[in-house]
Amino acid sequence: MAERRAEKVLSAAFLSTDLAPGKYFDGGNIGLFLRVEPNGKRFWVQRLTVKGKRTEIGLGSFPLVKLADARARATDNKRMAVLGGDPLEAKRKAKDALTFTQAMDLFLAKKEAEFGNEKHKRQWRSTLDAYALPVLGGLSVASVETRHVLKVLEPIWNDKTETASRLRQRIEAVLSWATVAGHRTGDNPARWKGNLAELLAKPSKVADKGNHPALALADAPRWWKALAQREGMAARALQFIAMTLARSGEVRGMTWGEVDLKAALWTVPAERMKMGREHRVPLTKEAVAILEALPRMDGSPYVFFAPKGGQLSDMTISAVMRRMQEAEVAAGRVGYLDPRSKRPAVPHGLRSTFRGWAADVGFERDMAEMALAHNVGSAVERAYQRSDMLERRRAMLDSWGSVLKGIDGSASVLPLRKP
């Protein structure tokens, strides 16, 4: 395997390109390099001397471990080795230590009696499962630092401020329990006052916190083409979200038992819907094609499953859009920004993009709202309105799919409004 020494430090833009198999060294003096396998997989490795013996330490796979994180880990290892320590031994000890996931389970088992109701209990666990565990889950509670907590919170701090604020409090509570129980020492890295308050905007001051940044309609075809070129289950889930306008949680929890490929129909049960009502989603030919091309995992009911068979995390799907934006910026472009707030678009903002387009081209308000699974009219009106306009919504989503592909979606729009 060829070694390629960098004249200067590696960059995110360089790492996003197609790299031939080999070793790509960072330009620093910490022995960090990216190993690219013939099958395309990429791993961070550090080469350093520990107690007089040259060794290599794995630092995780790319892009799960980003360049900045790999450098931080390598710097810590280098510092430890220079001071006479053994990073490999420390890594082995960390594996035997209590992980954040284990600490969370122990904490919640003791905390459950304090929860007012079952819903509150589920909310505690679900937010930690969805956002904290993908970053903190495998770390020992003793090694969790402020930078790790920031990695959890920053992606959702502006767009899901209330959720992020509660999440921070819950992480702080788990780590506080771990400290009292003797599993860690020192300050709590999730503490707000005098800690994260200096690094994050005050929740009350975050601009447009109630609005999810939307994709500009003019950018939709370019965004869709770039997304189609990305690999991975999260990218396919994001495509499906864009085509069906479903919420991220509805798609992540989608099971094969809810899907009828022959009828091109997905029926989401009431218990998984925000409004508490069953929702039928018509599937376009492109949506069906995506489902038919997906692999299936034995023992997992989920359509878009995580590597171990569970649900994808919300952050995993959001990360796809974030990486797409980063690639645009690295290429010297402004990327996919909300036309009003100028903030990078997020998955939930696709629903706003669709809603604006549907209004502009003349689709009926009620039908567009039904596509988004919103309540339409008063309770009395809903009692009398038994039709969910399934086939008309199917035609509307066909037109929306044309917009995503860069075809004039208004060309096939029928005059649906009454004169």
From TrEMBL:
Query: Matching Pfam families, A to Z?
Result: Arm-DNA-bind_3, Phage_int_M, Phage_integrase
Q: Specify the superkingdom.
A: Bacteria
* Biological processes, Gene Ontology terms: DNA integration; DNA recombination
Q: Where is the Core-binding (CB) domain?
A: 98-179
Quote the InterPro entries the UniProt record gives: CB, DNA_brk_join_enz, Integrase-like_cat_sf, Integrase_catalytic, Integrase_DNA-bd_sf, Integrase_DNA_bind_dom, Integrase_recombinase_N, Phage_int_M
Supply the PROSITE patterns for this chain. Answer: CB, TYR_RECOMBINASE
MF terms (GO), sorted A to Z? DNA binding
Q: Which Gene3D superfamilies match?
A: 1.10.150.130, Integrase, DNA-binding domain, Intergrase catalytic core
The protein's UniProt keywords, in alphabetical order, are:
DNA integration, DNA recombination, DNA-binding
Q: Does the keyword DNA-binding apply?
A: yes
* Transmembrane stretches, start-end: none
Domain named Tyr recombinase is located at 210-397
| Family label | Belongs to the 'phage' integrase family.
Annotated protein name in UniProt:
Tyrosine-type recombinase/integrase
